[in-house]
User: Which sequence fits this backbone?
């Protein structure tokens, strides 16, 4: 039997991350909760069940993977490192087991598509895939990120988003690609059309 209350830990982490998402200090807007954090958690659970991974590690890593960048945009460049550090502190205070905390941190550190790493655990590979999968299943929010948050004009934004989505697709594991392939094809078609019509 576990000597920790996972349900309570999960509730506290959700409350903390949701509060950060809805804070006025969050540069990404409150939509990051509904259109990124929750889908990443959902994709993580889905893949975790298929691949028989540790769902507690996956779920907590999914909720906390972008936490530092959401709290303070100045930390965004290295948000994978800062989020892992903060996750360790938060989970330690909630009495989550140290060995599992380390695995949550490993997931968070290696989740970014722009930084290629060798995944140390099955859970780390799943989180990276789930993060990237959300970029396709929540395409409307990716447009908001591109044109609303980053303020790109149409052609520059389409090129930036195409590069981002190509990195995302490259990091999705085969089981994840199977789930989001139709969304990937739609995204590719829309973005390529925007770029070719300006060629």
Assistant:
């Amino acid at each position: 039997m576990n000597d920790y209350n996972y349900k309570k830990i999960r509730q506290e982490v959700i409350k903390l991350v949701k509060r950060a998402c809805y804070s006025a200090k969050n540069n990404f807007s409150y939509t990051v909760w509904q259109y990124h954090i929750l889908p990443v958690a959902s994709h993580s659970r889905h893949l975790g069940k298929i691949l028989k991974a540790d769902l507690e590690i996956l779920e907590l890593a999914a909720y906390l993977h972008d936490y530092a960048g959401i709290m303070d945009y100045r930390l965004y460049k290295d948000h994978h490192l800062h989020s892992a550090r903060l996750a360790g502190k938060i989970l330690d205070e909630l009495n989550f087991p140290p060995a599992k905390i380390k695995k949550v941190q490993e997931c968070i550190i290696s989740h970014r598509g722009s930084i290629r790493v060798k995944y140390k655990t099955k859970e780390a590979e799943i989180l990276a895939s789930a993060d990237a999968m959300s970029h396709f299943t929540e395409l409307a929010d990716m447009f908001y990120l591109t044109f609303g948050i980053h303020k790109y004009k149409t052609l520059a934004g389409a090129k930036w988003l195409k590069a981002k989505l190509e990195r995302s697709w490259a990091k999705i594991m085969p089981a994840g690609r199977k789930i989001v392939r139709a969304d990937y094809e739609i995204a590719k078609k829309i973005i390529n059309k925007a770029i070719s019509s300006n060629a």
Summary: Residues 6-196 form a domain with the Hypothetical protein af1432 fold (CATH 1.10.3210.10). The chain has one domain: 6-196. The radius of gyration is 17 Å.
